[in-house]
Input
Amino acid sequence: MYIDTHCHINSEELRLKARTVITRARDAGVCRMLVVGCNFEDSCEALAMSEDFSQFGIYASIGIHPHEAKNYGAVPSEFAQLVNNPKVVAVGEIGLDYHYDNSPREDQKRMFEAQLEFAREHDMPVILHIRDAMPEAMSILKHYADLKLLFHCYSGGLEWLDRVLSMDAMCAFGGAVTWNGKASEELREVVRRIPISNMLVETDSPYMSPVPYRGKLNEPANVKYVYEAIARERGMLMHDLEVKIDSNAERFFEWSMSNV
Ligand SMILES: [Zn+2]
Ligand SMILES: [Zn+2]
Output
C-alpha cells in the first residue's frame, strides 16, 4: 500500500475531478493522501475534502505558501479553529521560495516565521517548501529544531543533507527522482544515502509528474512510480519500502489518531 504525503487535489487542475482522482488512487493501492493547503481558501478546501472522502484516507494540512505570503498580514485567525480538526495533521506548506520570488522576500520570511510560531503553539508537524533558499531557511529553522519538520520535494542536495539530518527532519521525494538530468542524478544520490527512517514519498500532484507521465497532469495514483524508483536506488523490495514509509508517515503525522 502506498502513501502520498503531498498532493493538491484541491488545486484548480484536480478539484473538479477529485472523486475520480481519489478513486483511481485507491484502486492503484494508495491508502493515505495528504491534501496540502497553499492559501486560506484551499486550506479550507483540503479540510473539506478530508471530511468528504474520509473513507479513502484523505487528510489535510493548512498553510500559506511563500508564493502567497504577500497577500497576508498575519496567520489567518480562522486557522486557530481549523487546526483543532482531527483531519488536519500538519501546518504547511510554508517556507521560502527564492526561485520564483512570487512574494517579496521580507513577506516570505515574515509569514514563514509566523507560521512556525503557530505550529509550535499548536504542537503540529510542519511541511516545508524551500526552493533556492536553504541558507536563509536554515538560519530561521535553527530556532525551531524542537518542531517536527518535513522538507517536501527536498532539493538541498548532498550539501545540506547533514544539517537537515542533524535536526532529525524528514525529506520527501517525488517525481524528480525518476527524471533524467544532473539535478535528478544528485537527488538519487541523496535517496541512496539518507537514513531510511528520514524518508517520505509524495507526488506534489498535479505537478512534478514522474516518468512515464512526464509533462502530463500528475495525480496520487502515480506515486507508485516514485516508490519503484526509490526501491531500485536503495536495492529494497517494494514491500519492505512500503512498510517503512508507512511507519515513517505514521510517526510523523500520527494520522491513525485522526480516525478516532
Ligand atoms: Zn511545494
Ligand atoms: Zn505542494
Notes: The first strand starts at residue 2 and ends at 7. Strands lie at 2-7, 30-35, 58-62, 88-97, 126-131, 149-151, 170-173, 199-201. The mean pLDDT is 97.
